[in-house]
Design goal:
Helix content: 25-40%
Low-confidence stretches: 1-7
CATH architecture of the largest domain: 3-Layer(aba) Sandwich
Radius of gyration: 20 Å
Largest sheet: 7 strands, parallel
Mean pLDDT: 93
Strand content: 15-25%
Strand order of the largest sheet: 1-15-14-13-2-5-6
Number of strands: 15
Bound molecules: magnesium ion
CATH superfamily of the largest domain: HAD superfamily/HAD-like
Number of domains: 2
Length: 314
């Protein structure tokens, strides 16, 4: 991951360097939260950047570990926040990719037990994957609740209604070695405003890994599978022509590195440049995969490059 200009890692780039990068790449992968928006608020200039990339004929896709909403809700959200040219086919969420994995890779036969929100269930339904219905009465316990006989996979995502009973049931299903154990993503936590945090899917998966003594297969970033989904749906994607833009070293930068893409860290989200420098200086060579090739303060730093390109073509 030397980057297109021969320097290694953590290089803050500006003006002409960004322009060269825009010209050199034809496929842009963006993480969402912390890169193009914070929750319900678009990052200033992000919509203009995305719309400009599309207008300049670049391929743009979004790769998000957020599994709480189905893709069509993302399209509405993009539109609402001013990203008016984004279409369903450009959105690769960990819930959508989990559905593809269950349907096309492992071809699951039987039901899936889901720990997750409605958005995740909706994506599975769209792919015709049957999920165990949650029909327990409120007083049910693991001693007396019903267990479905044909559960062939446990899928763990973000679940803000997690109960002890759900964890216990999942643990029981996972005693069957033929029952697959999947996680939408392994994110440990997510930032909220005011310094609060939200435990991520990774924390729920960890609980089940301890209870089952098994390791989950992770679908979302940093696993390569999302890139395989993109490659199967966009013809001729060349990793050398791709730039992965994200705000989290442990997911976005590692994902890019795992897939052979150049990576860019934007400082509007979770990770700081100092953490990236620490990974770069680490003696542990595996840590070097978490180092971005390029760093920008915000993706709005792309805007002057577009202005230059537009002036050139006028
Ligand atoms: Mg993010």
């Amino acid at each position: 991951m030397a980057g297109a200009f021969g320097f290694k890692g953590c290089q803050k780039i500006r003006g002409p360097q960004i322009r060269n990068l825009l010209e050199a790449k034809d496929f842009f992968l963006f993480d969402c939260d912390g890169v193009i928006w914070h929750g319900e608020k678009a990052i200033s200039g992000a919509a203009k950047v995305v719309n400009s990339l599309i207008r300049h004929g670049k391929n743009v896709v979004f790769v998000t570990n957020n599994c709480t909403r189905p893709r069509e809700n993302y399209v509405h959200k993009f539109y609402r926040l001013g990203f008016t040219d984004v279409m369903l086919e450009q959105i690769f969420s960990s819930s959508y990719c989990s559905a593809l994995y269950l349907r096309d890779v492992v071809k699951v036969r039987g039901q899936v037990f889901v720990i997750g929100c409605d958005g995740l269930r909706r994506e599975l339904q769209e792919a015709d994957i049957p999920c165990v219905e949650e029909a327990d009465d409120p007083d049910a316990t693991i001693y007396d609740c019903a267990l479905a006989p044909d559960v062939k996979a446990v899928l763990v995502g973000h679940d803000d209604k997690l109960t002890f009973l759900k964890l216990a049931k999942a643990s029981c299903y996972l005693r069957d070695p033929d029952c697959l154990f999947l996680a939408t993503d392994n994110d440990p936590w997510h930032p909220l405003s005011g310094g609060r945090i939200l435990p991520g899917s990774g924390s729920l998966t960890a609980a089940l890994e301890v209870a089952s003594g098994r390791k989950a297969t992770v679908i979302g970033k940093p696993s390569r599978f999302m890139f395989e989904c993109i490659s199967s749906q966009f013809r001729g994607v060349d990793p050398a022509q791709c730039l992965m833009v994200g705000d989290r070293l442990e997911t976005d930068m590692l994902f890019g590195s795992n897939c052979g893409l150049d990576t860019m860290l934007t400082l509007t989200g979770v990770s700081q440049i100092e953490e990236a420098q620490e990974y770069r200086n680490s003696e542990l060579t595996t840590n070097h995969s978490l180092v971005p090739d390029y760093v920008v303060d915000t993706i709005a730093d792309f805007l002057p490059a577009f202005e230059e390109l537009d002036e050139q073509s006028n």
